[in-house]
Every structure is written in structure tokens, then in C-alpha cells.
Design the sequence.
């Protein structure tokens, strides 16, 4: 088929007024939340392993076992040489412990084999590591290295759609659209704050709109606004 006859993909577009809502969201959430992750860590290696362990469980659960895990396996080389059965015993409270034990050991081996045991600070390299997808890579970049990255998890998908910043549930498309509207220096902070807001206020089943600092411009708000801010 000639190139002229191929159907072009429509450009990614944000909903009307999305840029203004995005910038307001950045400023309002700054008033409420610090730009931090709730996963406890001391370095990039610990952040990487903790993030893998956080799948399908709470940060509190991960934080309950990582001190013991990293005391026994403080480096990628230590974890790469670990007996999976020993690791399983330590991480069992996080759920799916057999699969997670395999995942973090394989990731540690890749770090040793490819990067001398150090966590790389480039997205293109991070996503080649076993167990590290784009979301996890963006979290590691932003939190461990201070490199702007917009991580899209289930909370971010929910909130960006409710706020009318995007009209898609595709994580890569959401990342692309939001990063076009928000300055790079705000990417990491906005993602972390959206996650915290999704956990504490804008819950999936019953959003507490009456407590939300965004309810005066959120298209999905179920209550009268606290503020009167034109969009």
C-alpha cells in the first residue's frame, strides 16, 4: 500500500482545558503532599528492589520486610548469589513471594552482569532489566536519581482521567500527554503526589470529593467546590 494511502494515527490530544487543570493540580497538590515515595530505601539498589516487591501489595508491607532483606543482602552481588528459598522466607508477607524472589534475584544478577552491580540512571537501560517496566523505571529515575520521570500506575490512570487531563487509560499515552502539559521539573513530584492523593482521598470505589483540594475544577467532583477558581 502506498504511503499516501496509509491511515495515519490521530495525534495524541488532551481534553479541552486539560493544561489549565494540570497546572492547577500541580500547585494544589504541592500544598498537601511532599514529593516522596512511601517505600523506605537508602540508595538506588534498595529503591529498585523495593519497587519490584511493591507489586500487588502495600508499601507498608514492603517496608516491614526490607530492613531484614537489605541487612542480609546489602548489594546487588549479594542478592544475585542468594538462595531463593532464603529470600522467600524474608519476603513472604508481601505476597506472591516465590515469583517475587525469582524476580529480584534475576534483576540483581542482571545488574551485576551488565552494570557492575550499579543501577543505571537512564530509562532506556532500566527498562531492559528483568522486572523493571516503564512505570518502575520512572519511579527509580525520579526518586533515586532526581531525573524527571512521570510514573503511571493505577492511581495515576484513575486520577488523570477523573481530572480530565487525559481521555485514555493507556499508560504510555497518559505519560506523553501529561508531560507535554507540565514542566519537566514537576513530572516526578506530580506523579508521586497523584499516587498519594489516590490512596488517601480520590479512592477508586468512593472518592472523598468533599475533602479534595481539587474539587472546584475537577470535572468528576461529586460535591460543590471548596474554592471558586475559574478554569
Sequence:
Amino acid at each position: 500500500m502506498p504511503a499516501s494511502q496509509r491511515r495515519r494515527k490521530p495525534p495524541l490530544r488532551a481534553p479541552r482545558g486539560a493544561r489549565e487543570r494540570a497546572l492547577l493540580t500541580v500547585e494544589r497538590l504541592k500544598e498537601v503532599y511532599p514529593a516522596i515515595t512511601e517505600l523506605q530505601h537508602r540508595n538506588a539498589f534498595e529503591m529498585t528492589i523495593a519497587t519490584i516487591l511493591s507489586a500487588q501489595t502495600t508499601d507498608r508491607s514492603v517496608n516491614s520486610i526490607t530492613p531484614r532483606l537489605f541487612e542480609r543482602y546489602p548489594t546487588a552481588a549479594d542478592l544475585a548469589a542468594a538462595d531463593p528459598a532464603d529470600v522467600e522466607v524474608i519476603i513472604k508477607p508481601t505476597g506472591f513471594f516465590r515469583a517475587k524472589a525469582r524476580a529480584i534475584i534475576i534483576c540483581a544478577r542482571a545488574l551485576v552482569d551488565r552494570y557492575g552491580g550499579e543501577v543505571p540512571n537512564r530509562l532506556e537501560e532500566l527498562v531492559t532489566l528483568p522486572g523493571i517496566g516503564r512505570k518502575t523505571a520512572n519511579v527509580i529515575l525520579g526518586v533515586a536519581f532526581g531525573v524527571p520521570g512521570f510514573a503511571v500506575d493505577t492511581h495515576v490512570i484513575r486520577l488523570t482521567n477523573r481530572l480530565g487531563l487525559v481521555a485514555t487509560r493507556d499508560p504510555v499515552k497518559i505519560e506523553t500527554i501529561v508531560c507535554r502539559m507540565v514542566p519537566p521539573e514537576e513530572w516526578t513530584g506530580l506523579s508521586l503526589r497523584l499516587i498519594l492523593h489516590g490512596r488517601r482521598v480520590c479512592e477508586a470505589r468512593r472518592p472523598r470529593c468533599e475533602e479534595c483540594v481539587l474539587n472546584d475544577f475537577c470535572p468528576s467532583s461529586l460535591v460543590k467546590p471548596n474554592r471558586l477558581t475559574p478554569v
In short: The chain has eleven helices and no strands. Residues 18-36+149-211 form a domain with the Endonuclease Iii, domain 2 fold (CATH 1.10.1670.10). The radius of gyration is 20 Å. The chain has a mean pLDDT of 93.
